[in-house]
Amino acid sequence: MSPYGKTDTSKKTEVAEMFDRISANYDFLNHFLSLGIDKRWRLAVIKSLRPLEPQRVLDVATGTGDLAIQVHKSLRAKEIIGVDISPKMLEIGQKKIERRGIKNIRLEPGDSEDLRFESDYFDATTVAFGVRNFETPIKGLREMYRVLRPGGRIAVLEFSKPRSKIFGSIYSFYFKYVLPKLGRLLSKDKRAYSYLQESVSVFPDYNRFTDMMEDAGFNQCTYRSLTFGICCLYTGEK
């Protein structure tokens, strides 16, 4: 599934185009539409990585760098690299890093399915709400496995579908009808937040996704539901 459903371009190209379009309002919409809960979700990633005390961290689909910045603040890693396919998202992220005077984060263009880094380099790899946007998720996961050192850990945040019938019905109404309308109004992109809802609905969450992680090579794969199942934290080791 691609954002605009074009027949003459790849999903990768459309995803980059979509995020370039909404980049100016992305951070505001992220916090506003999630009621600020997205900040707690990133802290769950930090908690999962803290026992490793990682010094080299790769954040894939880093966007405007929020998770990379949180890794800097909470884990004090020596080297943090964020990669993304949207130039405009990276531009905004770079400005945020410069305003904060952070020296150990580097943002650069990068394709999740063809990472330029050597194998066994990073202590931890992370991706927040990006796997849904990979052209071929298993390829992206295998690349994240390749660049991770033995004993290193991956942490993935993704939206999921609540299992509670009552809360799930409320959430489904918000996610299907309210969020796309607000997204269209505030982002000026007719498809971006409809694509968000559609891509979440077909994402292989919970055990299906941990199975995919194992297929990519990871072991000790687990998942933990966050905020009544709106979001899920997946972890695995090499």
Radius of gyration: 17 Å
CATH homology superfamily? Vaccinia Virus protein VP39
Structural class: alpha/beta
Share of residues in helices: 40-55%
Strand order of the largest sheet: 3-2-1-4-5-7-6
Largest sheet: 7 strands, mixed
Instruction: Please give the alpha-carbon distance between the first and last residues.
Output: 29 Å
Under the CATH scheme, which class? Alpha Beta
- Which topology does CATH recognise? Rossmann fold
Tally of individual helices:
8
Quick rundown:
It is built from eight helices and seven strands, in the order ααβαβαββαβαααββ. The chain is of the alpha/beta class and 238 residues long. The protein has a single domain, classed as Vaccinia Virus protein VP39 (Rossmann fold, 3-Layer(aba) Sandwich).
Describe this structure in words.
There is one protein chain. The protein has eight helices and seven strands; from the N terminus they run ααβαβαββαβαααββ. The chain is of the alpha/beta class. The chain has one domain: Rossmann fold, CATH 3.40.50.150. It has a seven-stranded mixed β-sheet, with helices on both faces. The two termini are 29 Å apart.
Describe the SSE topology.
Layout: H1 11-33, H2 37-49, E1 56-60, H3 66-75, E2 79-84, H4 87-100, E3 105-109, E4 122-128, H5 137-147, E5 148-159, H6 165-187, H7 192-201, H8 207-215, E6 219-226, E7 231-237
Parallel strand pairs: 1-2, 1-4, 2-3, 4-5
Antiparallel strand pairs: 5-7, 6-7
Helix pairs in contact: 1-4, 1-6, 2-3, 6-7
